[in-house]
Amino acid sequence: MPGPVTESDRLENIIRSHVYPEGGTGWRRISELPVAEELMTATGKTPSPSSLNTVSSSKDEYLRFHYGVLRHEGVEPLRRAVQIYKSAPDMAESTETCIYTEVFVRGVNIIRLGSMVRVTFSAVRTRQLVNWPASQRLVPGTVVALSPVPDNFQKRCIVAVVTGRYDEAINCSETPPPLDLEIRDPEVAASIMEPDQEYVMIEARSNYFEAVRHVMEGLKQAAKEESPFDKYLTKGAKPIARPACLSRDHPSLDISSLYHRVDANIEPLKIPAQGDIPEHIENKTGLDGSQVVALQSMITKELSIIQGPPGTGKTHTSMAALKVLLSTQPVDVPIIITAQKNDTVNELLSRCHKQGVNFIRLGGRARNDAVFQRTLFNLRAIHRGKARRRDQFQKRLDFLKSQAKILLQRCFPPFRQQLMLPEHLQVVGLITLRQCASIMVNWNGSLNTIAGDVSRHPFGPWLGNETLAIGPHQSIHVPFISDNGAGEVLGSEEGEHNSSTNIASTRLALTRVFERINDITRELKVVRWQEDIETIQESGARIIGCTTTGLTKYRGLIAAMQPRVMMIEEAAETREANITAALFPTLQQMILVGDHMQLAPHADVLELSKPPFNLNVSLFQRLVERGMEYSSLHIQRRMAPEIRRLLSGWYPLLVDHDCTRAQDAVPGMGSQRVLWFDHQEPESANRYASKFNTFEAGMVAGLYKHLVSNGTRPSNITVLTFYSGQKTYIENALRRTCQFPGRQSTDGYEETGPEVQTVDGYQGKENEVILISVTRSPEDRRKPDAGFVKDLRRAIVALSRPRRLLVVLGDAQNLALSSARHIWGGVLDKIGSWRTEYIPIFCEAHGTEIHISKPDEWEKLASEGGCGVACGRREIVHGALCDSICRGAPCRELAGSMASNVPSSHSVRSSGEGHVASGPTSLTAEEDLLDLRDW
């Protein structure tokens, strides 16, 4: 009779349910990975539709819809890419399709994830050389399709996922690196162990499969579980209930942890569980009124939705709520913190570190040292001595690797031994001794006598004509795994002179080996997660941080920790399915923090962002628009009031904190807070149709140089644009203009020059000075076109990033006459006289205003930020008038009267920091430096 189920047993059962998921029925039987047949189909299958804000009839229907939409996004870009190539196999790469030729199998890399196929390839179809270490091509997690040459996807297609790209193995950055590919079916993986067979490999530019693969797996798990949040997602339940841990017997909650100073004599600070909040709470916590209301919701409701307009302190409020929740939750049950972007997760964890809260980071690369030291990867190394059970499985895996090496050496034997014998299969345990004897009973020949006659081989009756000729310089490789687990692929030099081998027997043998290896690696995953749980528990972590992708990638591990609270930052930018797939059955509280007026989730397949699919509608937005109760923050502490007023049409309740009125002006720009530089210089497009405007890039570079010369730190300037093509042009223009001084990033690493970002990559960030390059300005003035600039959310993000100075460079008439006029018309009205056809800059020393309307006019400025005339100020020490050229604000040792106005013809060429920057100087936008998702 089995004994009682222990806590350890329960944890193992949770983990195993994720590592060995049940097949299920209906949509749960459909593979997450694309299958060959659908990639070779001329027309894709559209997922079943749904409607925004309607209540699903069942949880299964709700999950089925999200699974179908995500799977279509994961499959459709690659299907289209394959079809484009299939229609013209000799084509060069296109905007949708990456083509790699001369793909050859070079070995098998056996790592803890399983058996990976090592391949090499050529990138001759690219339109220019690729800088592979900086490239986003073929990154781990990318799904690709392969087909033998010359079949070219007519009859055969192999689906694989990139698991490794070894940039360190190449001597030149432009040489394509070796790849490891995961092929799920061991039989298919074995079938391509033909080193002289050439393949073509296709990648879709717009698709990153890893982003949806784990979410789809999580949705299948969610279908088997019950969650207290199901009623809100599928039934639209209202009002929102209290969490299970907070009974109605508790009319108030202790928030004494938010006191500014801890004093044993101070009475406990309590907040009502519902209803009006006493005014003294604000004074004693340092939170404003709207933040206190949000705090009440976050700690007392099962589902809390907090909208934080720009600059209102969303993160500050979240940290206050987190502090209270940590004081009320069991110490052995961690709280989950998650966000869409790695940077946001790291920022939250960094704040936890500063408050002395112990945490652990799952996945991601953290450049912040405090966060990096608390990654699971590092903590594993500390606890490595306790991995005895895993070591047992590792030994079994090592044994299988040695078997695989022997097998492949004998499958591809030396020249004199051209065909595999039954005894080779018996040695590695693929057939029994009796089976081997049965095959050998009618044959007593020698290898030499059968070299030219396959029919006389013991496998002859099975083979027929299926023999494979091996070229004289080909080999099969099997790895030994290095200590770091990366894998080292070693070759069998004996196999270099093989002339033929038995295809059928080889496939049979390799299939069996791969199956056994995959079984062991799954068991290793179970054991590894069990050890990880012990590591997390022993570390005393109160917080687990990861991205929303990590929520599902590590779902089994997190579920086994049985969390009760999950806080989701950037919730309005996160796909609904990512959250739904991570609603662990033990969760009692979910907190969504975001702003549905800012950036929405991204859809790789355009039609999925439109009704009836609405992939770009977050759970946050859907619940708000359905009428679910939510709290909104109202007091902003970031933008100067002149900047904030540009947003008043979208945030009518947003008001300024007093601190925003006390911000210093930006040196060299007078008292200006907002400026729109208006022009009509035409745009261009690169070969991938991303827009750029060389005129704006030149103006941005000159303005940046002027700001730095007048004392603004490079790290305090950010340049934003709506197009990745323009981002690259601006970066190159800045390199041409000046030598970047070093600057410290927020993660503590030294960087160079200003930060240049697309708007989509800058949500959640801010800076002292923001320069926005609108880019769009059509050459044909009869056809106004705003492109990406007509997106309201992007406009809000772009305009709300600065603290002290906002400069917009763009064609105002184009926006006012285009389909974006409903967005930008109101902005231009509020800007009013701040809109000019020049950039007005100021000499701090002489109070002189200078107008710059073309990029080459920046050359009229003096070398260090002044206006270029004789200084005219009296030296403090000697009392004589300074006759040096004006150097503007940095001339601190001088005092006295100001000189007269600067003659418009007087100019001195500016050298910025004194040197021309090294590095790329061409204005040609380099491929693979672009963020293709921003197109």
Automatic annotation (TrEMBL):
Residues 615-812 form the DNA2/NAM7 helicase-like C-terminal domain. Residues 94-205 form the ZNFX1 domain. GO terms for biological process: regulatory ncRNA-mediated heterochromatin formation. Residues 287-601 form the DNA2/NAM7 helicase helicase domain. GO terms for cellular component: nuclear RNA-directed RNA polymerase complex. Residues 902-911 have a biased composition (Low complexity). InterPro entries: DNA2/NAM7-like, DNA2/NAM7-like_C, DNA2/NAM7_AAA_11, P-loop_NTPase, SF1_C_Upf1, ZNFX1. SUPFAM superfamilies: P-loop containing nucleoside triphosphate hydrolases. One of its GO terms (molecular function) is helicase activity. The keyword Nucleotide-binding applies. Keywords: ATP-binding, Helicase, Hydrolase, Nucleotide-binding. This is Helicase required for RNAi-mediated heterochromatin assembly 1. It comes from Colletotrichum gloeosporioides (strain Cg-14) (Anthracnose fungus).
